[in-house]
Amino acid sequence: MPATHLIDRGVIRVSGEDASDFLQNLVTNDLGTVTQDQAGYGALLTPQGKIICDFLIVAVPEGEGGGFLLDTPLLQTAALMKRLKLYKLRAKVALDDLTEATAVIASTDGSQLPEDAGLVYADPRLPELGQRAMTDRHGAADLATAPAQAWHARRIALGIPDGGRDFAYGDAFPHEALLDQLGGVSFRKGCYIGQEIVSRMQHRGTARTRVVPIVFEGGIAAEAGAEAMAGGKPLGKVGSGVDGRALALLRLDRVADAMAAGEPLLGGGMPFTLAKPGFIHFPFPGEAGFGAAA
């Protein structure tokens, strides 16, 4: 059971009788789909539709106090708590930052974690990501023996973006970070913060910039932050990478133009190609149907 302690994750608890309605009115996904057996994935946005923080949402059993635990990026925990408190108003909700006492454990090979690992839940974004668990921080070392790089290598190989590495919080729209492809946005629920912008991008097909997996020739990925170029024109930036694979935030319309002109795609000066994973359903450059919907 290879697993790692994700030291770059925090945990926030949202409890109280209004917890479900409170989150439902704020976040991008539908809290109605989050149950004891199914975690959720979503985000809190600015009114302009930019991602403040994305997170996994885990239902807490009623016998353990009920409510929800948010598996969040550590560096965004304070910003998320601040926004949640701002929106709390008179809602009967308690907000607690449990990060100091709680560790997030993740399988590094897609396998199941032991039932006694803590609060165990399947990563809702993609079945191949396997299970995660929230557990007491003091016992995390006994469960997690694999390096964190093993988790990121698997994530990158599967094409799953990571906030702060592959897109910038406060600057990226949900479509750009693939939340629409990974079950992180509900287009059927009622209003939430930033919903109008997200719905417009969905229905007008105006998401031209996307995080997509890429493969470098030679088996060595460019450094994170390297410029992606073609024909001397910018395409975007390379994000996290390992073993010749990486994720990159690219303007796909510019990629399509470069491919049509026969210009090589370069990241940090090294040639790369796009590698479309099975969970992405929008057309890539060079595929039938590519255009405004990309």
Describe the structure.
The longest helix has 12 residues, at 77-88. The chain starts with a strand and ends in a 20-residue tail after the last strand. It is α+β, with helices and mostly antiparallel strands and 294 residues long. The chain has 2 domains: 3-158, 2-Layer Sandwich (Alpha-Beta Plaits), CATH 3.30.70.1400; 208-294, Aminomethyltransferase beta-barrel domains (Elongation Factor Tu (Ef-tu), domain 3), CATH 2.40.30.110. The mean pLDDT is 94. It contains 6 helices and 15 strands. It is 18% helix and 30% strand. It has a 6-stranded antiparallel β-barrel. A 5-stranded antiparallel beta sheet has the order 3-4-5-2-6. Strands 1-7-9-8 form a 4-stranded antiparallel beta sheet. Residues 11-106 form the GCVT N-terminal domain. One of its GO terms (biological process) is iron-sulfur cluster assembly.
Please give a handful of descriptors for the protein shown:
five-stranded antiparallel β-sheet, globular, CAF17_C, alpha+beta, TrmE/GcvT-like, 294 residues, Elongation Factor Tu (Ef-tu), domain 3, single chain, six-stranded antiparallel beta barrel, YgfZ/GcvT, 2 domains, Alpha-Beta Plaits, transit peptide
